[in-house]
Structures are given as C-alpha cells and as structure tokens.
C-alpha cells in the first residue's frame, strides 16, 4: 500500500470535512435553538457566495473586505428570513415550517438567477496558490487555507457559546424554552440570533466551498448533502456536527480515491443507514423520550 | 417645450409604427403559403439555462433571417417554443402542447433524456424530425432513433477527433498517454467506452480514468491520482466549467506539463472568461467556427450580422448560439431537399433527405464541406485558448472522421 498516497488523500478529506463541519454547524445551531430543519441552508451559502462575487468581482473590492461583507450579508439574510417568514409560523406544524424553508430555497435560486444569471461562475482567487506540504504530503492550498479559516470560526463559536451571555442564552433556550422564558431570556431574540449565527457559519462555508468548487444557481444542493453529516452526528449536537463533518469528508474522499468517484455517495449513505439503524438520533444527538 | 417634444415624438412614433407594419407585412405578402413550424423544448431556466438562452437566440435570429429571405421555398417559418427548465417531464409536456396545436416537421430537444424518452412517440407519429442540444452517441443508432440526428459529431466522435489530434503529438516516435476525467452522469459516461476502444486501436495508452460526482466540491484526491500517472493529456467530458479549472490549476501547481482538452459543452469562452490566464493552453474540439474566430464565409458572416442586428450590445455569441443556428440551418436544408423532391414533410422523407447530405457547404459555419454519417456530422477541429487574446485559435486542420 502506498502510505504517502493514503496520507495525502486522508489529509485532503479531513480538510474538506472541516468545511462540511462548518455547514453542519449552521444546520445544528438553528435546529438546536428553534427546532426548525432549515432546508434553505445551501441557498443561504449560495447567496453569500454570490455576494462575495459581486463585492470582489463586480465592485472590485479587496477579497479580504468582500469576505466579511458577504458573510455578514448572508447572516443578515438569515435574520431577515427568521423574522419575516419563520416567526409567523410559530406554533404551526413542523412540516409546514420545513415547507416554508424549501420555498425560501426556491425563491433564493430565482433571485440569484435574476441578478447574476444562470452561467456557472468562479470566484476571484483570494487564497494563496502556493502548494502546501505537510512533511512530504501535498495538500491543495485552497482546501488547506479554507480549512484554517473555517477552523478559526469554529473556535470562535465554541468560545462564544461557552462563555458569552448570548451563548448561554442560546444554550438555555435550546435546553428548555419555557424555563428560559420564565428566567427572563428573550426567546424570540434568541431564535433570531440562532438564525443569524447559523447563517453566518453557512455563509463563510459557502464562500470557501465556492472558491474551490465553483458557483452556480444549483450550488445550494450541497446543503442537502451535508444533511447526512448532521443526521450522523445528531441534529442537535454541535460536537456531533464537527466530528461527523470531518469523518464524512474523510470517508467520501477515501472512497472516491480508492473505489472511484461514483462510490462517494454510496459510501456516505451506507454509513448513514447503519447509524440510523443503531442510533436513530445520531451519534451524539439527544435521545428524546416522549411520555404519554 | 416639453409638450412639443412629446407630440413630435408621438408623430415620429406613429410614422415609425406604419413603416414597421409595412416592413413586417412585406415578407408576409410574399409568403402566403402555410407556415413551417420550428418547434422547441428550450431550457431557458434550470441547470442548462446558461446555454439555453443562447440556443434560443440562435434559433430566433435564424428564423428572422430565413423569413427575411423569403422563408423556405416561399413558406414562412414560425418558431414556437416553451421553456422546460431542463426537466424531461416539462420537455415532454412542451412537445405535446406544441405538436398538439401545430404541424411541426422539425423540433429542438433540450436533453438526451428527453430525446430518448420521446423516441417511441416520435417513431409512431412519423411526422417530426428532431435534433437538439444532445450529442449523445446513442442517437446515432438509426434502428432505435431513426428520426433524430446530431447537429455535429457525437461525443464518441468528439473523443475520436481528440485522439486523432493526440496521436500526432507524440515525441521521438512514442505515443502520448492520456487520462479521461468525466462526470458520473449519463452525459459524462457517454463516450468513455468508445474512447477507450479507439485509443487502444490507435496505440494510445489510457493511464487513468477519473469519475467525479456531479457537484463535487473538492477534487484534490482525484488530482493526486493523476499526479502519480503523469498523463501527457487529460480529456474532460461532462462538464461546463468546474472542476476543469481545479484540475488545471492544481496539476500545474504540482509542476506537471500535462495538456488539457475538452468536448463541445466544455469548450466555450466561459472557460476563458472565468479562468482568465489559467485557461491558457486549454484545448477543445469544436465542430463550428467560433463567433469571434478569424474564419469567414457567407453564412458565418450572415450569422454575425444577424446577431449584431438582434442585439448590438451582446458582443461575442457563445457556442450555444452557433449550435442553435446550425440546427435550424440543417432543418431548412432537409425541408428544402424534401420539398424539392416533391415529397411530403414526413419524418421518414426528411430523414432520407438528411442522409443524402454529402459534401455540403455550410457557408463557413463548419470550415469544410460536410457529409452526414449515421445521422451525425462527424467533423471537428481542435482549438486552443490564447488567454492573452481571450479567444480560441485553431491548432489542427478540420478532421472529418470516416
């Protein structure tokens, strides 16, 4: 066995998995706080990536100015969606809310096609192009630097949720909404905050992923493929999203390299099927017991 | 003052309307025969819309031009289309709707999926000849698809043309090595088996085959595989843009001197516009002259003039536009030949007329006279990107497969 090749493949997979983890985090934050499965997460990623294209490409801003602006734009979009379209659905059945998020996804695709057209796009190059070597192992620079930027945001998030008042409010609301409400936490604001933070993580992942794989109005489909990550990790577990993201990224890449590209999805879905059989709530998800 | 300008404007507008009506009426008066309908399932939205809008423009402009020339044997041409979103069920619905309310001798299909789905209905109707966006090898099977043709070489024939070119690039008597990179779709897999057989026949070694998942985010693992086999050429198929850019950039970063080639839908100017300097040296097989090529010819000049007239601000017209125009050109030729032979416009008669096309001069759209074989035009040329000039330039003669 060529261990150097295996090492290089694994490194590429783990780095890609880091980006999956970031998207998964966007799913989980929103679900954990509001119990809404956001099927528009991929389209929010896409929208942020198009904003980056507009700022860095169309307006010729420095990519390092365009990146935070695009990410903030994406998170703002998340906040607006929550306030305008999700909040009025409070109390409705969860399937209705899911349908609203699917509708939002279609609207965003339409808006993007109207503004930027249907042509596939490449983002202006903003990550260093010099190949990265870890020992003798090669790692594509876009993936390596994308992973580092994503990891930085993940650490900031973890610290924020652990130590800040907003983070504690978010965790409290996720644990017990009624108790959080009675303790004076503004639950509605927490809901909005969860959409803003979830969309922010997704937006950053959107720009980083589009910088690697290109961008088109169909880009949002990646959000659904990351659904596997959050189901494996547990829909309400941040740690689960991180571990499952990295694992699925690695598995997909290794399966693609050794079995062929057509086996990437079957490999991940095989894992998903096994997890659903033995732990239907995911590796780290909360095992809810409903007593009647 | 403002009122005066307004009333003057209205007067001019009125005169303009009358003049426009007369101009519009002139061809109609000359063409009092029944219109011939060009039908079309056109992907103006959805994943293929990037090409669909240009295909539509090509078909529209050709229709306007042919009508200005008196139509086909005095019959005006009417172009009737529906947007399909590049979805087979919507394409089928559009076909039924358009053929239900019109007599449609020729029809544009937007995908291989649609053209295969509609084949049995097309065969049983026997009224319509179909071509479209697909260059699928399967459509050259005259038994199964007797009334469908390909407006250029099939994907397998494109691989054949590419391999013919590669075979001329060996050094010191050695044949170059090649790797095929294709998407895990029906489109992507189409020419691979025939391509491998042709390569073996020519003595070209296929050192690696890479299949990528549609919408793959990262292809660096696949690129690492190519680094180990160091192919002289990589041939892409089943893509429009990504991940071609990633393969080219990363393999060059690794210091490989591999050359990169692609088939029709991955050989448009989009590659140059989006990749910039990184696109330099990329090669594509193209059956038509590019809109901005140095080549000329009466029909190519007409196409350029018509494109300029319909949208002066559009500038370069993509290969989808050329493809739409060429489809309509072939339909016209086929209908004309059928009518001139005094035959009815049935699918069988038109298929016969198509098969009779031999050494046809396309007026510069294709650089050499073309002959139809197995319901396709097996001709093409290799073009290379000159990134500095932002255009493709020919690096081979026209190759007409036997």
Structure in a nutshell:
The complex is a heterodimer of chains A (292) and B (402). Chain A has one domain. Helix content of chain A is 73%, strand content 2%.
Word description of this protein:
The complex is a heterodimer of chains A (292) and B (402). Chain A contains twelve helices and two strands, in the order ααααββαααααααα. In chain A, a hairpin with a 2-residue loop joins strand 1 and strand 2. Chain A has helices at residues 3-34, 41-58, 63-86, 94-116, 141-163, 165-175, 177-182, 187-213, 221-225, 227-233, 238-259, 264-278, and strands spanning 132-134, 137-139. The mean pLDDT of chain A is 91. A two-stranded antiparallel sheet of chain A has the order 1-2. Chain A is mainly alpha-helical. Chain A has one domain. In chain B, helix 2 crosses helix 12 (298-310), helix 6 (155-167) runs parallel beside helix 8 and helix 9 (220-229) crosses helix 10. The model of chain B is unreliable at 1-30 (pLDDT under 50). In chain B, strands 5, 6, 7, 8, 9, 10, 11 and 12 form an eight-stranded mixed beta sheet that branches. In chain B, strands 2-1-3-4 form a four-stranded parallel beta sheet, sandwiched between helices. With 402 residues, chain B is of the alpha/beta class. Chain B folds into two domains: 31-152 and 293-371, Response regulator (Rossmann fold), CATH 3.40.50.2300; 155-286 and 382-400, Response regulator (Rossmann fold, 3-Layer(aba) Sandwich), CATH 3.40.50.2300. Chain B is built from 14 helices and twelve strands. At the A-B interface, helix 1, helix 5, helix 8, helix 9 and helix 11 of A face helix 2, strand 6, helix 9, helix 10 and helix 11 of B.
